[in-house]
Amino acid sequence: AGCKKAEIESIIVKENATLAYKKTAILNNINGSILRGEWVAIVGKNGSGKSTFLKALANLIKLKSGDILIKGKSVSRWKDKDLYRMLGFVFQNPELQFINDTVFEEVAFSARQHDWKEEDIAAKTTMLLKEFGLAEYINLHPFMLSFGQKRRLSVATMLLLDQDILLLDEPTFGQDEKSANQLLRLLKRRQQEGTTIVMVTHDMDIVDQYADRVILFEDKQIAYNGHPYFFFRNKRGGMIPPLHYQLIEEQEDRYANEQSVLSISH
Ligand code: ADP
């Protein structure tokens, strides 16, 4: 039964996990699970602990208490090599993560750590770069790419090993709408194939259009964990809801007014 559960739940945070840097607790009493193929948006004000949460999921900071299970096994007990084979992360300023001289090598890099055959590396890398609209830049230095292309490259580097959990910190930040949408569509396609996506974002339209669930961090805790609809309807976390929620509200107000006018005229 344990195994079956692990197939459904990509990530489980349990036992009131505390996430901290040295002695400073950033998030307390964290519990919950993220299902395979789910797209979860992490939202909250600056400094509320969103990036810290992603780092904990990637085993980059140690928990002060509680535990995080990735596919049923404590994140601290996975070997790095195995963990990062199934879990990819793209943090802010991904260009700081680039370490190779060409776009091709940047994507191929992770496979080289796993002794793949050269022809397999070439085939898979070429396919990914095509998918991400980067095929024509294959021999360029990664630093030569535009901001949006760099973000796409950083996501592509996280997919060569078919990682099926993606942790993304503001992947569309600073991009024009076209490249942002292009990236989101690629992520959507991956999600439909079963990839779990945990994404920090400030963009409420992305939350509205893509997320299955919103987790809001506020006052060092989970302040909301549920469907985007109720998050927006209840105006949680001081976020401004997408336009169509505002229109629903105006219509409701108008309806309520009409009802009261009707009842007065009776
Ligand atoms: P968010 O991503 O929501 O903006 P962060 O997770 O980056 O928030 O930061 C949460 C809190 O943790 C902030 O108060 C920040 O100053 C602090 N913090 C972030 N990184 C470190 C670190 N490496 N060492 C100590 N404190 C940190």
TrEMBL record:
It comes from the Bacteria. Residues 12-244 form the ABC transporter domain. It is found in: Cell membrane. Belongs to the ABC transporter superfamily. This is ABC transporter. It comes from Niallia nealsonii. The chain holds residues 269 to 534 of 534 of the full protein.
